[in-house]
Amino acid sequence: MKITIMTLFKETIDQILNYSIMGRAKKSNQIELEAIDIRPFAANKHHQVDDYPYGGGAGMLMMAQPICDCFEHVKETMPGVKPRVLYMTPQGKVWNQQMAEEFAKEEHIVILCGHYEGVDQRVIDEIVTDEISIGDYVLTGGELPAVIIADSIMRLKPGVLGKQESFEEESFSDGLLEYPHYTRPAEFRGRKVPAELLSGNHKKIEEFRREQSLINTYNKRPDLLKKANLSIKDKRFLENYAKNHCK
Ligand code: ADE
After folding, report:
1. Least confidently predicted of 55-59, 73-77, 160-164, 193-197
2. Are residues 134 and 189 in the same domain?
3. What pLDDT is stored for residue 168 in this prediction?
4. Distance 6 CA to ligand 1 centre (A)
5. What is the atom index within ligand 1 of the atom nearest the CA of 136?
6. SS3 letters for the chain?
7. In angstroms, what is the span from residue 96 Cα to ligand 1's centroid?
8. Are residues 103 and 37 in the same domain?
9. Domain that holds residue 241
10. Is residue 164 predicted with pLDDT exceeding 60?
11. Residue 137 CA: which ligand 1 atom is closest?
12. Number of domains present in the structure of the chain
């Protein structure tokens, strides 16, 4: 799989992409991850990439020509592959884990970062397949959202994370938040690790973790419970918990 981030701030993206798990995944060729600078594709003499909006208004817009020519070049690097082209915008569909899983099946993903007041609408009409937001707030550019999207997709690819289990039991994998984790010592500032985790009884540990996961979701993100994958036993546990912990 290849992810290409089209941006006016390539160095910013490169710095983040070379860091931590993303950097490791990039170096080990498990996934091809690159940032490409749009500016050299500007056909005008001064490599200008932005201009005033027709009709007036605040700020500048990214021009269509440099972006579309940059995209033609990017497409040529993956002959015969039709990429999904994601434009980062607060107007887009709000990103979630399910979308990350869907996009992780694609062969080539191109992420376009807007800057200033955004891009000429004809870019969206011409090349964008999906408008994506990372939440209902406005940022100064699409670079940080692009890295967030790339990270959430890339970590789902086999071999990028250490162990398969590291994402089988994590938050959202079955629509619930994860259970709390503990490491040594068994007691810290008077706070003890729950006895169930020290019991060595795997069935008991599994049951305890499931219940903690249900409690966490009930308390922090009750909205997720409506869509979660719950057994009859889970539902009974939650009913009982809710009775004793009225909010
Ligand atoms: N660009 C500016 N704000 C954004 C947001 N919330 N999500 C994605 N791209 C953006």
Report:
1. 160-164
2. no
3. 63
4. 15
5. 6
6. CEEEEEECCHHHHHHHHCCHHHHHHHHCCCCEEEEEECHHHCCCCCCCCEECCCCCCCCCEECHHHHHHHHHHHHHCCCCCCCEEEEEEEEEEECCHHHHHHHCCCCEEEEEECCCCCECHHHHHHHCCEEEECCCCCCCCCHHHHHHHHHHHHCCCCCCCCCCHHHHCCCCCCCCCCCCCCCCCCEECCEECCHHHHCCCHHHHHHHHHHHHHHHHHHHCHHHHHCCCCCHHHHHHHHHHHHHCCC
7. 14
8. yes
9. 169-245
10. no
11. 6
12. 2
Residue 163 inside a domain? The answer is no
- Ligand 1: which residues within 6 Å by Cβ? 88-90, 133-135, 137-139, 142, 145
> What's the gap in Å between 51 CA and the centre of ligand 1?
20
Say whether both 214 and 118 belong to one domain: no
Q: Please state the atom number of ligand 1 nearest to the C-alpha of residue 114.
A: 1
pLDDT one-digit tens code per residue, 196-243: 999 999 999 999 999 999 999 999 999 999 999 999 999 999 999 999
Query: What is the arithmetic mean of pLDDT over 151-173?
Result: 78
Q: Give, using CA atoms, the residue closest to atom 7 of ligand 1.
A: 133
Domain CATH number, residue 209: 1.10.1270.20
Atom 5 of ligand 1, residue of closest alpha carbon: 90
pLDDT, one tens digit per residue, over 50-66 is 999 999 999 999 999 99
**Cα of 180 from ligand 1 centre, angstroms:** 31
Residue 162 lies in a domain: no
Taking the centre of ligand 1 as the mean of its atom positions, its distance from the CA of residue 139, in whole angstroms, is 5
Does the pLDDT of residue 191 top 60, yes or no? Answer: yes
Calculate how far, in angstroms, residue 4's C-alpha sits from the geometric centre of ligand 1: 18
| Confidence tier at 122 by pLDDT (50, 70, 90) | very high
Ligand 1 atom closest to residue 140's alpha carbon, by position in its atom list: 2
pLDDT at 113 over 60: yes
